[in-house]
Structures are given as structure tokens and as C-alpha cells.
Amino acid sequence: MVTLSEVARRARVTAATVSNVLRNREKVRPETAERVLQAIAELGYRPNLNARALAQGRSSTLALMLSNIANPFYPEFVLAAERAARKAGHFLMVCNTDDDAQIGRAYLNQIAGTFADGVLVMNTDIAMNELCISAMQNGPILLAMWEHPEKPPALPCVAVDFARAGALAAQHLLELGHRNIAMLTGDGCGGLQDARSDGFRAKLLEEGVDLATLAQLQVRDSIDSGYAACQQLFAQHPRVTAIFATNDLLAIGAIQALVSMGCAVPDDVSVIGITDIQLAHQMRPALTTVAIQTEAVAELSIRSLIRLIDEPDKQPPMVLGPPPELVTRMSTGPRRRRARG
Amino acid sequence: MVTLSEVARRARVTAATVSNVLRNREKVRPETAERVLQAIAELGYRPNLNARALAQGRSSTLALMLSNIANPFYPEFVLAAERAARKAGHFLMVCNTDDDAQIGRAYLNQIAGTFADGVLVMNTDIAMNELCISAMQNGPILLAMWEHPEKPPALPCVAVDFARAGALAAQHLLELGHRNIAMLTGDGCGGLQDARSDGFRAKLLEEGVDLATLAQLQVRDSIDSGYAACQQLFAQHPRVTAIFATNDLLAIGAIQALVSMGCAVPDDVSVIGITDIQLAHQMRPALTTVAIQTEAVAELSIRSLIRLIDEPDKQPPMVLGPPPELVTRMSTGPRRRRARG
DNA sequence: TTGAAAGCGCTAACAA
DNA sequence: TTGTTAGCGCTTTCAA
């Protein structure tokens, strides 16, 4: 392995000068720099990032903790986060906790403030939240996708107004004339997505809908469980004309179930989700949903984390992401008399 | 930050002893170890992984390079790879190259043999392949999901017999009586998936099918382009009764297109893919596909990479993953007289 | 079984 | 503008 001092020797300078060339080029005379650069090229020198990290006390690595990357929402977030990190000169380490607090704790313990200059934690449940708070002393931690802007957590966070997302979904269904509505609330990979369902319920109430008529189900966060929940739902509440799911996976699962049961979407039943994952527009019928601008939030989160690392004073405790927006596609339509039994 | 020597001082031993306690516990007397452990607990000591990495010359970090994590195949691989890495005491750094050789080169240059003890590279095209070969001198690199077991690359790899996957798909369609077949070949995130299509073609030939009747299209690797390609296909070849796609995304896109065009799947047209991503069984109709055991291959790849790092002599240049298997679901059925124009 | 000491490769004062 | 020097926190011979 070629080291800094070998480069220095070859360029007939000292290690300090090489180091200077490698970062602030100002302090070194152009001819010297040239010589150093050439030596670097000739020797094929590559800096040892571990040594640099140790000397600098920072590793240029950010960690992203998430519960399960197989949930299609995460890859989209990761993609944007990795780009943002890369552009800012950081690496991104993905830490998958498998929904296991033990693993989350281990990761947090090992990397916060050591391997990673900062940690971005997504969709925390209460246990995870506690862990993060106690891990804050080790290094900067930021919560991404915090769902309750009205009650900031005890850690820095990037929040998204998910209650508003729920309200937008409610408004859309109401405007289409639906009154027999069912709601599927996902577990959000650890933390119940209740900001979304609360927002939805509040809007219904505001518009004078009797919440007693609202069929409610709590389910795991996946297409499969959306499918199962929808079947169960219609066995119990056959007169439902619209389904609100707190995320797109559930909504997609519901649509699949409806199709299997011979229900037309949206003619018999409308379905709306939240998030606007890729799949939402790739399905047929394409899913109506409330977009939360995953990319923008990911970028904002990375930028905020970096600021938290570099200038902690300048980073506000809570940053609010862009507002959710309704994306109308083909899975919702006006209420019609149901043709089936 | 609490350091090793602070722990040592508190336990009234030297740093070397603490270090010994932290790894090979044999060499130290139980009572001493006990004192050290207590000091660690009292001080809340956490080892500095950068320092350890520098001293040991290894970072316990593995890097996974892939072209675009938003492709649903990758998260499934990442999930399994991360688990395997974690269980083996390694971290996993995800490097997304955005299909950009520049970014790939930069990553390889920066991390191979430095930040990462080893690098797993997926789905390389030729450019990437060259890069990897020249980066091998920096540190262990292993190609995952090599598609051509019959021609091993110039690097260590874990291969999967994708030609066989194509052949299995062909056999299935032939057994169902299909003769008017179309083939959608994906670009595989950089490297054309031609092992799959070659295997498919070879099987057809073997069974005496005239390849001239095989409509062939090359497309980008996504649901959207599968959709578009399928529409285009039927405009030109309306008599096709079965579609083979070299991966599930294309197959899923094709099904969506068929549904939109009013074609029943599988009654009018059968569709088969390769991979068996999660989505394949979550769709309606559920997709018939050839499973390549992503999880097992990911695990095998991580294990192989670790062996390549620890005992390079014991790691064979090419390891063959489990054989692909046909998974029959609802998107394929016997050929029937087509009812449409 | 424990301690002493050197060093991993780089950075960052400070001095020249 | 360049060199000297002293670490960063840990591991690892080697000696005691």
C-alpha cells in the first residue's frame, strides 16, 4: 500500500505538504503541488480513509437506520439520500434493523459518533426513540420522516405533515361523494401511522361525517396484509364504497383483493393511499394517493444532518418538509350505487 | 469521548490489557477482566472503530456496489446481504452508482481496501468490469450475480445459471403449447441480460421452434418500459400468445399493458418472467416466473467475499449459486385460440 | 498474566 | 511556503 510519506519522499517534500496539496491547495506553491500531484499519479496513491478519519475525528460517513429495506418506500428514500450524501462528500452506510430493537441498539452504539459522523433514523417507534435519545450523547442523530410536526420529539428531526396527508385523502373521498368509508392503518414499520389516520378522521368529523360509520382496521405494512385486510373488511362491511389506506402498499394490496373479488376499481370501490411510491403509478388502475415528496425529504434530511454535524447551532430542532399533495389517478371515482350483493 | 486508556487507568491496568479483554479473553486473569469490564460499563466506553480499523488494517466493513437501488430486485438482495454481513460482524456500505461509470470508479477508488475490507459488485457491464479488474490490486473484489457461469470473468465471482433460467421459462411455455412467442430482453442495469435470452432461444431451437417467429425487443429495465414495450409489441405482432421477459419488472409491466388493452392474462396471453421478486406473488394475476433464490445468492456472496478477504487461497475463482427454479403461478396457461382481432 | 513501546497513515498546530 | 512535531485511539509484538 502506497502511503503519504512515500509520496512525500518521491516528491521531495514532507508529509505535511502532501497533505496540504490534498486539501487546501492555497498554501502550497504551484510547482511543488505539481510535483506532488505527479508523484501521487505515478505511485497510484490513494489516501487511507481510516487514518484520515482517525486524525480528523470524522469519517465522512453518514449512517441511515431503517427497519426493513424491502419495504419499497425505503429504497426510494435511500436512493435520494445516497445521492445527496455523495454530492456532499459523504458515504452512506445502510443499517437495516429488521424491526429489531436489539439490532438498532447495537448499531447505534457501535457507529454513532465513531464510524458515522451522524445517523439518520427513520420511522422510529417508542422503543427506538428512547434508544436514539440516549445515543445522542455519542454523536449527532436526526429523525427523518417524523410524522407529528405538532409535537416535536426530544431529538432534532425532519418532519412531514402526515395529518394533512390524511386530511387531503379524506377531502378527496368526500368530494367524490363517499360516505361508507373504510380505513386501513399501517404499523409503519414499528410506529403506528396514526398521524395519518388522525388527520383523516378529523377531516371527516369536520365535514359532519359520523365516525361510527368508519370501518377501521390496523394491519402490518405490506401488500400482502393490505390484501388480507381488504378481504376481511368486505366480509364484515360489504357496503363500503371507498378505502383509505395510510400507505400505498396497503392500498395496492386492497386493490388486488378487490379485483380478485370481482369488484371494479374505482367503479365499485375507490381506493386511495399515501406516499406515492413508484409502484403507485405503475399499477393498473394507477393509484390515487397523497404524495409526500420522498426525494425532497431525503435530500432535506441529509442536508439537515450534515448541518447538525458541522454547525449544530444553526440547525433548528425541527425542520418541516414540503407539504403533501394529492395526486389523482385512476383508483378513485365518484360514488355509485353498488351492483353487487 | 471515553478512550481505551481512560478505561485502563480506572481498572488499574494498561491499555494492552483492556484491548486483550476486548478480544481474546483467554490471556487475562478473570479478576482483572472483571475489573476492566466494570470500568468499561461505568465509563460507558465504546471503542473507536476508526482507530481500530487503522491499527488492524481492516475496518469490518463491506461495500456493496449496485447501479440503482430503486430497482426492486436490489433491496431484496441488500436485505439478505446486510443480514449476512451483520451476522459475520461486518457493516455494509451501500454504494449506488446511478448507472454512472464515473461514480462507480470513484467509489472503487476510494473504498476498496481502505474503508471497505472487500467490495461486492453487482450486475457489471463491460466498463464496470474493466474498472473492477484494475481495482483488484487495491483490495478484494467479488462479482455477485454473474450471469455467465460458462465463461468466468477475470475476477472472483458468484455465478447463477441464468441461461438455465431462460431455458426453464421456454420449456414451460412450450409445454403449454405456445408457439407464437415474444421475448423482452432487459438491459440489466448496465449489462444486457443476454444469458437469459440466449438460454431461452437455445431451448426453443432444441424443441424445433423456428426462431424467426420469435418477436424480440430490447428494453430498459423497469415496469414502465415493460408496459410500453408490450404495447408496441402487440401493435406489430398481434398474434403472440405468450411473452417471456428476462426479468419480473418487464413481465409485470407487460401484464399491466395487456390488462389495459383488454387482454386477459393468461387466457389470451401468458406472461413469464425471471427472478421472483416479492412483487411477483403480490400481483394479480400472480406472476409465473423462474426464481433465482435472491436471498441464498446474497448470503453466498457475502460469505464468499469474507472468505476472499480472510483466506484468499480457499476461495475458488467462481462459485455457482443454487439453480433457478420454475415457480408456476397464475400468469401462464395453455395456449387458446385468440378471441380478439 | 501484565506492561512497555512502537506504530497504523494521516492531520494540524507551530516553527522555521 | 515548507518542515517539524506531536498526536488521533487502538493493536500487537516483545519483554518482564
From TrEMBL, chains A, B:
SMART domains: HTH_LACI (SM00354). The keyword Ubl conjugation does not apply. Gene3D superfamilies: 3.40.50.2300, lambda repressor-like DNA-binding domains. PROSITE patterns: HTH_LACI_1 (PS00356), HTH_LACI_2 (PS50932). Keywords: DNA-binding, Transcription, Transcription regulation. Residues 2-56 form the HTH lacI-type domain. InterPro entries: HTH_LacI, LacI/GalR-like_sensor, Lambda_DNA-bd_dom_sf, Peripla_BP_I. Residues 314-341 are annotated as: Disordered. PANTHER family: HTH-TYPE TRANSCRIPTIONAL REGULATOR GALS (PTHR30146:SF109), LACI-RELATED TRANSCRIPTIONAL REPRESSOR (PTHR30146). This is LacI family transcriptional regulator. It comes from Paraburkholderia unamae.
